[in-house]
Design a protein that fits this description.
The protein is an alpha+beta fold. The radius of gyration is 22 Å and the shape is elongated.
């Protein structure tokens, strides 16, 4: 077990994605740097986790993760303000928590340490946090940070995001990571493991706050909800008798733009989590046809009152909101999903027999750019 539980979870997450990892990689400014200060720079800082994937290339081959397990979460706007104004937090100047992003001598040392460990200067820099508050883009696109890391991409990674991503592709086959195995055991016990907050890219009709999953939240107006009113259907998921969850995401296989895992609710699937079908699309255009034929009626999300990510994992309270397929596709066309986000769509009042019939109809109508796989 690593010193920090979030660091342990990040390690498991990277292993599940095929990365080899190294921990506590030390770095400090070189002593001959023009701005080296013996009093300030003699002690090493360390990189929490470095992941290396031998089958990937470019910035995806090396992931460098700094873990910030603050229980209050990570407020992007507040953190930037603290760093800019050099505020004191927990007895330290705020910039010291992110020295590799702020001071050039530390940035240089950080990048050099990553290159020594991985053999390349290209990498993706992640800050792993318990929960993201505010717009991740404020942090990820902050120009001084991007310059400090020589243009290498910067990302925020939440606990919920890690759990959700592993959950989406998980079957009953025993997995090697402790985090993945914990999810499987919770499911085996009958618990409903937390699926992600359902977030769709905003279609530009209304500014939307960013969620802790990294994608903008669906606004009331973009869903056809009267401003200040309630959605046309807003009930707890438990009130749905039978339904299907369709997990729409961007796969790492560059051949496809979207994949949809079509999964029955656990009750009618008798506790099994294998999908009825996996549908892949090489472009956005056929997606409306797919979602219409599959009978998508809305999306699900965590209500705002849910607390921290760990509590949500153990005691989820999912809501269901009506949303037609056309609006889903319009939102995705406006702002595509990233590789680390996915949307949970719902086909309400849909039995396994009915869904298989719909999949057969889709197979007959779908263009060649759509591939439908039905597990035996």
């Amino acid at each position: 077990m690593k010193e920090d539980i979030l660091e342990q979870l990040v390690d498991d997450y990277l292993h599940a994605k095929g990365y080899f990892t190294q921990h506590n990689l030390k770095f400090r400014p070189r002593s001959d740097h023009p701005e080296f200060d013996r009093l300030q720079d003699s002690n090493h800082s360390d990189i929490d986790v470095v992941g290396y994937h031998p089958l990937r290339s470019g910035v995806d081959r090396v992931w460098v993760v700094s873990c910030k397990s603050w229980q209050a979460g990570f407020d992007t706007r507040a953190k930037l303000s603290e760093i800019t104004n050099n505020k004191i937090r927990s007895g330290r100047e705020s910039w010291r928590f992110f020295r590799e992003l702020v001071q050039p001598k530390w940035s240089e040392a950080f990048c050099a340490a990553v290159e020594r460990a991985s053999g390349q200067h290209e990498f993706t820099y992640f800050t792993a946090v318990t929960r993201i508050k505010g717009d991740p883009a404020l942090w990820e696109r902050h120009k001084p940070f991007c310059t400090a890391l020589s243009g290498n991409p910067i990302r925020l990674l939440s606990l919920e995001q890690m759990v959700s991503e592993l959950s989406a592709d998980m079957s009953t086959t025993v997995v090697p990571s402790q985090l993945g195995r914990t999810i499987q055991l919770l499911r085996a016990s009958g618990a409903t493991v937390g699926w992600p907050v359902v977030e769709l890219p905003n279609n530009g009709l209304e500014p939307a706050a960013r969620s802790n999953r990294g994608a903008p939240r669906l606004s009331a107006r973009s869903l056809g909800r009267p401003t200040g009113g309630k959605s046309r259907i807003e009930v707890m998921m438990a009130e749905l008798q039978i339904f299907y969850q369709l997990f729409l995401y961007t796969p790492e296989d560059s051949r496809f733009v979207f994949k949809i895992r079509v999964c029955p609710d656990v009750e009618q699937a008798h506790g099994r989590h294998e999908p009825t079908a996996v549908i892949s699309s090489a472009s956005l255009e056929p997606l409306t046809l797919c979602l219409r034929e599959l009978g998508v009626t809305g999306y699900s999300r965590w209500p705002d009152e849910v607390g921290d990510a760990v509590s949500a994992l153990l005691t989820p309270k999912l809501e269901y909101h009506e949303c037609p397929p056309d609006e889903v596709v319009a939102s995705l066309g406006s702002r595509p999903l990233s590789r680390v986000a996915h949307v949970t769509l719902i086909a309400a009042d849909t039995s396994m027999t009915e869904m298989k019939r719909r999949i057969a109809c889709l197979r007959a109508k779908a263009p060649r750019s759509v591939v439908i796989e039905e597990p035996a």
